[in-house]
Fold this protein.
Amino acid sequence: MRVPPFEMERWQSTYEHRVRYNLSESGVHPYTLAELIELTGIDPGAMRLEYTQSNGEDELRARIATLYDAAAPENVLVTTGGAEANFLVLWALVDPGDRVVVLEPTYGQTPGLARGMGAELVPFRLEESLGWQPEPGAAGQTITSDTRLVIVTNPNNPTGAILSEAAMDEIVEAAEAAGAWLLADEVYAGAEVDGVYTPSFWGRYERTVITNSLSKAYGLPGLRLGWAMAPKEATAELWARKDYTTIATTAVSQGFATEVLRDDVRPRVWERTRAIIRGNLVAVRSWLDARSEQFGYVPPEAGAICYVRYASGIGSSELAERLRVEQDVLVVPGDHFGMDGYVRIGFGNPAADLEAGLGRVERVTASLAPAVRAG
């Protein structure tokens, strides 16, 4: 397997800790260890740093299963972040020559892995003119009988859109008609602006795999704790492959995760995330609306991200590089999602940092001559 460069991940990992204002992140300002200890009541000094149950401790898998209708602990595999979950799913399901349909734009890990595994990638798209929804009928036209796997991210990265029930139904019906597997990355579920938890693809079709983690909606990316939800036989296959990767997640991560997912703790975590998103989205929208000659956007419904179209002839990577070098600000260029002329702005930062970072963005964008009206 020879994977293509993961441009966005390398861009962020190289520079996100080397800039003053990081507006590239898609999650909210993370908890400190002290805050996490206070939230959960755990004494980390009592934790024994041993090997954990390699598919996930029983209590943790039981708590993850309660997030989904008609799920059991046997459907759950605990992984080192959502990234390992996605990797294991692609490794298990995709062979060279397989036809893989991807709803784009999307986070580049899964399509990059599919390409590296020799798959034929076929996109169908979210349309900005439809509020970042797919064109009605597009799923059925694209997910043909020779499709092996369908990949969706819902809520979406980079747009922050949530698929409508009609769009979800079309995707499921097309996948079922084709006999294809469906992989739904649901890592932003719980980070909704309106506070309504995003409906899951779980339970809509038997050949469905869900991936998720504590990184985005939970504000705990440093725990590197994720999971895959799949039919029991498929979960067993994923676990067999995990024996060849990380073997087990850390005792510290599993211990904290088990407490974070308690019924009396989890809603408080989500509300913190949603409060940050709601408050900062007001500031981002006000800033963008005051500059409507330069920027166009669809307000995100979930996640601390806004996918912004800008009116200038400069390429998105060139614009992002200028912001980094000249203003010490990091954003994600749209061409990392195959869409030049856009940038993804993260707004999960502390409010003062967000305001200062946007001010520095304007120092560059205000000097650019618009190529076309953005509205």
